[in-house]
Design brief:
This protein has a 7-stranded mixed sheet, sandwiched between helices. Strands 3-2-1-6-5-4 form a 6-stranded antiparallel sheet. A two-stranded antiparallel ribbon has the order 7-8. The N and C termini lie far apart (42 Å). 27% of the residues lie in helices and 29% in strands. The chain is an alpha/beta fold and 297 residues long.
Length: 297
């Protein structure tokens, strides 16, 4: 059984089983688009296979995926749909696209769903271990921000970095509090991949979650995925003043790009993050580059 089994109707599970391409590596995403055959993403490349070409997907197929993810009812995931995605069992994230129903400038639901992007979370033990020496400052872990364009593995790297810190792999072990707003870092059995000293607060807004963890669990390290909101920045600033080390991720492909965006410009200007980890795709593989908080090697 794979994590996809939690969100795929039977007919799609069968298609995935008969059409896997081991030569391309493990599946990272499935792409479902109305009127087209199933496609997959492995190693950053989107592809399809002959076994899938004979069947084009319908709107009903896409709705069945959402119903499966919502355990039989789309209404159970309506709040998440308003944000354009659903997090299903096991941390599987489903991006949703189509015709939105908007009221007072806010997305209420989807009148028509035309595309789904199903991202499969997976542990990659050891991916963060070689980076640990570069993330230490005076022998202590420095606050670290992981950056890359979408889909290059920020969350996967963060998950393994949490495991290393919690398990004492490459540094003295520390308690880690995880503000897992979308259930992608430690939902379900993923929690066991985060190490024995990790406490996970799921399905709670990051800003609120970080403050709750600080008050209730006394973490030495505080981790959160995808800083995207001014409230997240405020919470990080407050947490930094409490003496904890911070780990987070953000979308970005270069220092200049970050500095053009007010939220990240303010975040970097405060000097909270002493290390930046840049993920890039080069020569068919992921490259990890560590710089200081000003983007310098």
């Amino acid at each position: 059984m794979t994590a996809f089994d939690h969100v795929l109707p039977r007919f799609l599970r069968e298609e995935v089983a008969q059409g896997g391409d081991k030569a391309r590596g493990p599946l990272e995403e499935l792409r479902l688009r109305e009127g087209f055959p199933l496609r997959a993403v492995s190693g950053g490349e989107e592809w399809t296979c002959p076994a899938w070409q004979a069947r084009t997907l319908t709107q009903e197929d896409l709705h069945r995926v959402l119903e499966t993810a919502g355990q039989g009812s789309v209404h159970t995931i309506l709040d998440q749909l308003r944000r354009g995605y659903v997090t299903a069992a096991g941390g599987v994230r489903i991006g949703v696209c189509g015709e939105g129903a908007v009221q007072d400038g806010q997305l209420q639901s989807f009148r028509r769903v035309t595309s789904l992007a199903i991202r499969l979370p997976r542990a990659v033990p050891g991916v963060a271990r070689p980076l640990i020496p570069q993330l230490l400052e005076g022998g202590r872990l420095a606050s670290t921000l992981i950056l890359s364009p979408p889909g290059l593995g920020k969350t996967t790297l963060l998950r393994d970095l949490i495991r290393c810190i919690s398990s004492g792999d490459g540094l003295p072990p520390l308690r880690v509090g995880v503000a897992d707003e979308r259930g992608e870092l430690g939902a379900g059995n993923l929690r066991y991949d985060l190490g024995p000293r990790t406490d996970v607060l799921e399905n709670c807004p990051k800003a609120l979650g970080m403050m709750m963890l600080l008050r209730a669990m006394s973490p030495q390290v505080l981790a959160a995925d995808e800083i995207t909101d001014p409230a997240d920045l405020l919470a990080i600033t407050q947490a930094a003043g409490c003496g904890v080390t911070l780990l987070a991720t953000a979308h970005g492909s270069g220092w200049e790009e970050l500095c053009l965006r007010p939220l990240y410009r303010d975040l970097l200007a405060q000097g909270i993050f002493r290390r930046l980890v840049w993920i890039q795709w080069k020569g068919g593989k992921r490259i990890y580059q560590v710089t200081d908080g000003e983007g310098k090697p």
